[in-house]
Amino acid sequence: MTAASRSSKSIRSLLIRNLYLHGALLLAAVLLVAGCGLRSESRGVPAEVEAVIASVTDDIAAERYEKIYNDAADLWKNELDLEKTVSVFKTLQAKLGKIENRTLHAATEQDNSGGPMKGKAFIVTYQTRFEKGDGMETFTLVERDHQWRLARYFVNSTALK
C-alpha cells in the first residue's frame, strides 16, 4: 500500500467519523429542541383552572353534588341531569372513597373553533390515590363569560369495576 493510498484511507476514515459525529450532534440538538417543545406545552395549569378544580374537589368531598351541577357548564347539564350527576358522584364516592392525594399527569389547553367545546378548554389529568384504590382523574373545563366551568369529569380506575 502506498503512502498516498494510506493517506486517502485515513482522510476517508476521518471524514466518516466526522460525519457520524455531526449526525450524532444534530440528533442530540433535535431531541433537545423537541424536549423543550414538550415542556412548553405542559407549562402548567393556570391559577383560575386550579381554583375551579380545587372547588369541585372540595364539593365532591363534602358531597355538595347539586352545587357542582349548578356551577357546571351547559355541556355538563346537556349530558347529565341533576339526578344522574348525584348518582354518578355517589357511586364514585362509594367505590373509591375520598381523595388522598393526586399528582398532575398532563395539562392541555385548547382553543376549539367548533363543536360542543367551542372556545377555550383546559383538560387536566391527575394520577390520583383514593382511599380504596388508584385511578386517573380527568377534568375538562371550558371558559364561558370569562369564567372556567366544569364541562366533564371522568375517573378511570380498576376499583370501579
Give an account of the 3D structure.
- This protein has 161 residues and is α+β, with helices and mostly antiparallel strands.
- It folds into two domains: 41 residues; 114 residues, Nuclear Transport Factor 2, Chain: A (Roll).
- It is 51% helix and 30% strand.
- It is built from five helices and four strands; from the N terminus they run H-H-H-H-H-E-E-E-E.
- A four-stranded antiparallel β-sheet has the order 1-2-3-4.
- A hairpin with a 2-residue loop joins strand 2 and strand 3.
- Helix 3 packs across helix 5.
- The longest helix is centred in the N-terminal third of the chain and has 39 residues.
- It is globular and about 90 Å long.
- The N and C termini lie far apart (76 Å).
Short summary of the structure?
With 161 residues, the protein is an alpha+beta fold. The protein is 51% helix and 30% strand.
Which stretches of 5+ consecutive residues score pLDDT under 50? Answer: 18-42
- Percentage beta strand: 25-35%
Given the C-alpha coordinates, what overall shape results?
A: globular
The termini sit apart by 76 Å
- The count of DSSP E runs of length 2 or more, i.e. the number of strands, is 4
Q: Give the class-level CATH name of the largest domain.
A: Alpha Beta
Question: Helicity level, as a percent range?
Answer: 40-55%
Please state how the strands of the largest beta sheet are arranged side by side.
1-2-3-4
Number of helices: 5
Topology as a string of helices (H) and strands (E): HHHHHEEEE
Main beta-sheet annotation: 4 strands, antiparallel
Radius of gyration: 26 Å
CATH topology of the largest domain: Nuclear Transport Factor 2, Chain: A
Q: Please state the second-level CATH architecture of the largest domain.
A: Roll
Sheet/helix structural class: alpha+beta
Arithmetic mean pLDDT:
82
